[in-house]
Amino acid sequence: MQTIRNFCIIAHIDHGKSTLADRLIQRCGGVADRQFRDQLLDTMELERERGITIKSNTITLTYTAGDGQTYTLNLIDTPGHVDFSHEVRRSLMACEGAVLLVDATQGVEAQTVANVYLALEQDLEILPVINKIDMPAADADRVLEQIDADLGLDPFETLQVSAKEGTGIDELLETLVAKLPPPQGDSGAPLKALIFDAEYNAYRGVVLLVRVFEGTLRPGQMMRLMHNGAEYEVEEVGLVKLEREKQGELSAGAVGYVISGIKAVADIDIGDTITEVSRPAAEPLAGYVEAKPVVFSSIFPVSSDEYEELGKALDKLKLNDAALTFQKDSSSALGFGYRCGFLGMLHLDVVQERLSREWDLSLLLTAPSVEFHVTTADGKEHVVENPAEYPDPAAIEQVKEPYIKGSILMPDRYLGTVMELLLEKRGADTQFHYLAVGRVEVTSELPLTEVLFDFYDRLKTITQGYGSFDYELMDYRATDLVKVDILVNAERVDALAMLVHRDKARARAIHACKQLEKHIPRQNFKIAIQGAIGRDIIARRTVNAYRKDVTAKCYGGDISRKRKLLEKQKEGKKRARAFGNVEVPQEAFLAVLRSDPDDK
Fold first, then answer.
1. Given a cut of 70, is residue 590 above it in pLDDT?
2. How many domains, the chain?
3. What confidence category does residue 580 fall into, taking pLDDT thresholds of 50, 70 and 90?
């Protein structure tokens, strides 16, 4: 066990975690040159396309140090985005140390600070590393000051590397094996192994990724999951390299995979403890904190035949993404679907992409909403996360909405435009902290509903990509909430109903009507698209009808002949509008969810 090092790479978005992982794998001979490609651990097509890490990935490497000693390195590459911080928390539980990466051009940013606190919670040894020292804009001295002032870490222990060029990688590996502690544990004690991730394999069932803390896992053992008491026989254990590599056993300190013929996805809980049936452990390991969803949206299959398939796909995805929650839902317009909870808009976007790519499903999403606490006149409190469940406004005593404490780190030259954005989004109690020359942290209390819609996109635009945003949930506060209904040809489209603050109701209704006008195809009759609060219409757009020239065959003569034909056409259109059924296409639903760059 003295030669094992379990560590992960943590950092803000785009600070070079995956590139550093690539260099470490190459240096340790974990991949042949002909098999190498960039973002080696990002196995999902979506990750490679967007250039971001969505899933934590693990790999076991062998490194021979300068003193001739051979070490086993279990490396976990983690995501940087705030929406995937639950992945980081799970990965940290399987480690003793963390490499904290800071970009030499950007310095310490929001998620850098958040990840340091996560690592300190788990009592990990932190090794600070400055990356991208080869960039023309790199300022390592300024970043060393920030590491000292903002993070409280020793700047003299900080290494400087260029993951792209491969500079300083050897020194980093030597420091890793010298500074990071080996795992503790007894391979002869009763078995205790933490499930920190899992994936579904069509041929082998559920593949568990585990960190063994005590005891030894061997094929043929009967194992028990301590949370639900289910028992299985261990079929295969091994290490995760670029491919799974079968082993005879996994003993204390090891990180690897376990296959035990688990077919039912519902039987598995990430964070559960595995023990042996014949010699069980006295108590389970401290499980990880459940991620609380903050954004809710309903997902419906375009074809009702795909409802069962959507349920199975969500089951398998939940195994891979423990922060996703879902329950059955139904809508009069869209049929049966699932009400899902997400950690943010990027999380929602990624789940929708994965469902449509990996399971080939065509989906419709409703407008995202948050949990509101509604008190009715009879004194009861209701939790409302779906506009369909919103009570009659006449019976409502008070509505409370969730507030967050947002933290924005950015160069101070963008302060004016960011302040405007915060005012527009109902930000309160805004404070400034100057961290270093030219860098400022702005903290503000904001309603979560305002952050959902287009806040992050707007912030990135006005700060030219230099602004980073992080938030934590605070409490619930009273608000003036209204339900905005969208009517197409006088019929309510319940999937487009929104719960919004009264001041923003008209702007959101106009946006929805404009987007629908662009995407709903023209018919033989006029289509009215309206936004309404109760019976009051607050926005309207019209999709004009196709116009057939019915007077083309009239080549002169009395005007009354033309008038008669036009009146007849008018009657026909009126009748068509009364009976006409307008289909709202899928792209129209998605367009309503997106912010329009032309809108203020």
1. no
2. 5
3. low
pLDDT in the model for residue 597: 47
Q: How far apart are CA 210 and CA 416, in angstroms?
A: 49
Residues 126 and 16 in one domain: yes
| Residue after which a domain boundary falls, among 428, 460, 479 | 479
417 and 523, same structural domain?
no
CATH number, position 386:
3.30.70.240
Q: How many CB atoms lie within 10 A of CB 492?
A: 15
* Continuous H helices in 81-199: 85-93, 110-121, 140-151, 169-179
Q: Do 30 and 156 belong together in one domain?
A: yes
Range from 309-313, 433-437, 490-494, 581-585 that averages highest in pLDDT: 309-313
The residue with tokens 């983690």 is 78
Is pLDDT of 148 > 60?
A: yes
CB distance 275 to 281 below 8 Å: yes
Q: Specify whether the CB–CB gap between 284 and 37 falls below 8 A.
A: no
pLDDT in tens, 31-55: 777 777 777 766 677 766 777 777 7
Main-chain dihedrals φ then ψ at residue 90, nearest 5 degrees: -65, -40
For residue 356, give its domain range. Answer: 295-365
**pLDDT at residue number 417:** 92
465 pLDDT higher than 70: no
Per the domain annotation, does 185 fall within a domain? Answer: no
22 in a structural domain: yes
In a domain, 463, yes or no: yes
Which of 153, 179, 205 is where one domain is finished?
179
Q: Using DSSP, state whether 89 is helix, strand or coil.
A: helix
Residues 40, 174, single domain; the answer is yes
- Is 598 inside any structural domain? no
Strands (E), 43-89: 57-64, 70-77
Token pair recorded at residue 562 = 């033309």
Beta carbons of 552 and 574 less than 8 angstroms apart: no
pLDDT value at residue 518: 86
Q: DSSP letter string over 419-452?
A: HHHHHHTT-EEEEEEEEETTEEEEEEEEEHHHHH
